[in-house]
Every structure is written in C-alpha cells, then in structure tokens.
Specification:
Blueprint lengths: L1 E5 L2 E5 L4 H4 L3 H12 L1 H7 L4 H8 L9 H11 L3 H10 L1 H25 L4
Antiparallel strand pairs: 1-2
Amino acid sequence: MVLKVAPNQLTLELEPGIAERFGSLREAVATGVYQRGLKRCAIDLDLAPSNLSVQLSEDPSRHFSVDSLERYIETTGDKTPIEYLIARFYGPKQQTAELAEIRKQFALLQRAMKNAGVA
C-alpha cells in the first residue's frame, strides 16, 4: 500500500499482493529459483538443472516435491512460497480486517482535517 499526500488530498494506492503476483505456489518457487540461478538451486537441492527445470514447469509427469520445497526454503532463505500460501489461504480474512481499519482511520483523519479547517 502506498500513501501519497498532497496539500488537500490523500490518495491510497493498493498494490497487488503476493497472491495476485503469482498464479500458483509452483510459480512462486520457480520465480525464486530462476532469480537465484537454476544451476545454483539445483545443486542445493541435489538435482540436475534439467530435472529441476522440468519439475518447475507445467509438465504433468514430474512434480516439485514437498521435500524439495522444504529444502529450497531452508537453503535459500526464500520465504516467498510461505508468504504466498499465507496470502492465498489466510489473506482474504486478514485483508478485510485491515481494509476496515484503514477506512476507519481515514474517516477519523477526514474529520480531524475538517475540524482543523484543512479539508
């Protein structure tokens, strides 16, 4: 979320969250692997780069295992897959509560600005 404040205007710009950036957990992991380097991650996961590439693709014959996911997070420190899962399965309720709080605070701010003669 980005707040931009102009003299008499407050603009809220909500940026897409992690659940919107990635279409799936596999995509979140694949992005991290390719950013860090396929060969380096393959070595960390004890896989051939070509096998890792196929596992991260949409090839239905080979899948990236849960054990590989755990090892990937452990060796790279990349928490993006965990954050994706939290946003995907926990996020909507949390986001609703946060947006309600933002609306409440914005209404209080508007009242305070009006009382101060700024709005």
